[in-house]
Structure formats: structure tokens, C-alpha cells
Specification:
By secondary structure, this protein is of the alpha/beta class. Helices cover 51% and strands 9% of the residues. It has 14 helices and six strands. It has a six-stranded mixed sheet, sandwiched between helices. Helix 9 links the parallel strand 4 and strand 5. The longest helix is centred in the first third of the chain and has 23 residues. The termini are far apart. The model has no long low-confidence stretch (mean pLDDT 88).
Length: 344
């Protein structure tokens, strides 16, 4: 009996397989994107390519062209997520135009997407795999005050990278029995690696907290959980996003191992004005004389609170089916301030 170890196709081999399966039907740049994005075997590529080509022929029987969206949809059908009750799928969405962030923050986010897209090329074609024996995954910390858009950005990153986004339910992961938390985390990371899912740890400081000096058995086992996470993060080749309101609460070893750290600040007056304007869909009737500068200057709030205030102002106007006015926005802003425990 001879046992042969057949390695998975490399990036260049996947690119060749996709090209053979879809000759002349796809733009070369799209082929490179899908080959870089999904580490499929030859059989899986053949099935996904057949699905994508079928969609293109249904859309245009005479001159079918397979788009990147066709390829992404077909590839996702190859996955079978089994993350169970420990994770919740969050729809990927939004576009770069939806973000109201400083240029430095946007540049940092684009770097995350760029690394995810070009990682196979860097590791295989340019040989960086020899310099990175571990820690090859895409990992990012999104740190900032509540309401500054961290979850929204996670959804955008998932859309741009092309993977499904799963928010980890920490209450279902952490278990009081010794060793159970590590087993739950192992299942999550293994499944995410097999199914190309992005792991989104919201309120990450509760799970990735700093290790403490051992004064009791509870401290010892809590430190063991953090140690396991450190090791698993280093061997995980997928995408991990950590969102936190308290970056200083994260273990320093985690921060060293995470490849990207993106800081979110409270919006300034210019950003707040843009946020207020962007919250209203095109169908919403707005009074032509709304004083956006007054609203932005008067209410110092993060985008999440501005969204709530905008909806509240729309409700005030909708009760009488009229256009939204400056007075509606001021009333909604005051109400939001009271809920935040602030005075104006």
C-alpha cells in the first residue's frame, strides 16, 4: 500500500485551472482575483466554473460573459458552513462611498483589502512564504469609541474580500468547564478555515483580554484560554477581524500578532455634517433650508448615534407626511443627547 500526499493547487495552478474551465469567458483580472481568493481543489474549481458559466449563459445566451459576481456566487455555493450556534452570519454590504472617515483610516482599510487580495501572490510568486512560516492570515483590529462604524467596516471588508462574515457569539463560546472554551474555539477556527468565513470578534477585549498574574485556579485557566488563542491565531490562514472599544484591554501579545490596527476616532464637525446628510435615502423629502452646519456643530455624536437621530427625525415628519426640517433634526438630536446622558 502506497500513500501519496497530494498538495493543494498553488495560486498559479488555480489560476490555470480557472482559465481552462472558462476559456475566453472571463476577464483576466477577475480570474486572478478568484484564484487568489479561494484555495479550491481542481474538482471544486470545475464545479464552480460550471455554475458561473451557466449563470452567464442564462443572462446572455448569444455572448455569455462571466463576471466576478458570478464567480463569487458560484464559489460560495461550494461552501458548507457549520458554525452552528456559536456564530451569526452578518450580511456583507456597503461600499467605500458609504464611509465617512478620515483619509488615513480609509487608506488603512484599503491596505487590509489589498493584502487579502494579493497574499497568495506575495507568499508563492515572490517567496514570502519562506519568511513567514506562521502568521500568514489576514488579521485586523478595529479600535475606537462606540458608534464609530466598526461593524459597518467589517461588513464592507467582507464584501471587498469576497467571504461571508460571521460574528462570534462569545457567550456561546466561553464555557465554565475546563477545556470546553478551547474546544469551541478550535471548532470555530477549523470551520472558518475550511469554508473561507471571516471571523468577526465584536467586543474582542472580553475574550482577548490581558493575561493576569495567577492568584487562583480561575486565573490559571483564563490564561490558558488566552494562550490557546495566541497559538491558534498564529496558525490560522484565514481572515480575522477584532472590534473593540478598549484597545488597551487587549493582551499585548495579541496586538503584536495582529497584522493591521485601524483606529476609529469620533467624527469632527465636517465629518458629522457629511454623516447627517448621508443618513437620508434619496426618497426622503427634505426641506430645502435645512441648516446642516448648525446640526453638525450643535450635536457632537458618533455615526451610530447620528443614524438613530436621523431615523427619529424622519419619524417625526412621517407622522404628518411632510418634509423633514431643521426643527425635526434638532428635536431628534436633543432626544438622542438625553438617552446618551448628555445635556445641551
Amino acid at each position: 500500500l502506497v500513500e501519496l500526499d497530494v498538495p493543494s493547487p498553488t495560486f498559479r495552478e488555480r489560476l490555470d485551472l480557472w482559465g481552462r474551465a472558462l476559456p475566453g469567458l472571463v476577464e483576466p483580472t477577475d480570474l486572478e482575483t478568484v484564484a487568489s481568493r479561494y484555495a479550491f481543489t481542481g474538482a471544486t474549481i470545475a464545479h464552480a466554473a460550471h455554475r458561473a458559466a451557466s449563470c452567464a449563459r442564462l443572462r446572455d445566451p448569444t455572448a455569455p460573459r462571466v463576471t466576478l459576481e458570478d464567480l463569487g456566487d458560484a464559489a460560495r455555493l461550494m461552501f458548507s458552513h457549520r458554525l452552528g450556534t456559536m456564530a451569526q452570519r452578518i450580511p456583507a454590504g456597503f461600499s467605500w462611498t458609504d464611509l465617512v472617515l478620515p483619509k488615513d483610516t480609509l487608506d488603512a482599510l484599503r491596505e487590509v483589502v489589498s493584502f487579502a487580495r494579493h497574499k497568495p501572490f506575495l507568499l508563492e510568486d515572490w517567496g514570502f512564504a519562506a519568511k513567514l512560516p506562521y502568521g500568514r492570515g489576514v488579521s485586523a483590529i478595529l479600535a475606537g469609541p462606540p458608534g464609530t462604524g466598526k461593524t459597518m467596516v467589517a461588513q464592507l471588508l467582507a464584501k471587498e474580500i469576497g467571504f461571508d462574515l460571521y460574528r462570534i457569539d462569545i457567550s456561546q463560546v466561553v464555557n465554565k468547564y475546563i477545556g470546553e472554551t478551547e474546544k469551541n474555539l478550535a471548532r470555530i477556527f477549523d470551520e472558518a478555515e475550511n469554508s473561507h468565513a471571516i471571523l468577526f470578534f465584536d467586543e474582542a477585549d472580553s475574550l482577548f483580554a490581558k493575561r493576569t498574574s495567577v492568584q487562583s485556579s480561575n486565573d490559571r485557566y483564563a490564561n490558558l484560554e488566552v494562550n490557546y488563542l495566541l497559538q491558534r491565531m498564529e496558525t490560522f490562514d484565514g481572515v480575522t477581524i477584532l472590534a473593540t472599544n478598549l484597545e488597551q484591554g487587549l493582551d499585548e501579545a495579541f496586538k503584536r500578532r495582529v497584522r493591521f490596527s485601524v483606529q476609529f476616532e469620533l467624527p469632527g464637525e465636517v465629518e458629522r455634517r457629511a454623516l447627517w446628510v448621508s443618513m437620508f435615502p434619496s426618497k426622503v423629502p427634505l426641506a430645502p433650508d435645512i441648516d446642516w452646519d448648525l446640526i453638525a456643530r450643535q450635536f457632537e455624536m458618533a455615526g451610530g448615534y447620528i443614524k438613530k437621530a436621523a431615523l427619529r427625525a424622519a419619524l417625526i415628519a412621517a407622522e404628518t407626511r411632510r418634509a423633514i426640517t431643521t426643527e425635526d433634526l434638532v428635536a431628534a438630536g436633543r432626544h438622542e443627547y438625553r438617552e446618551m446622558g448628555r445635556i445641551i
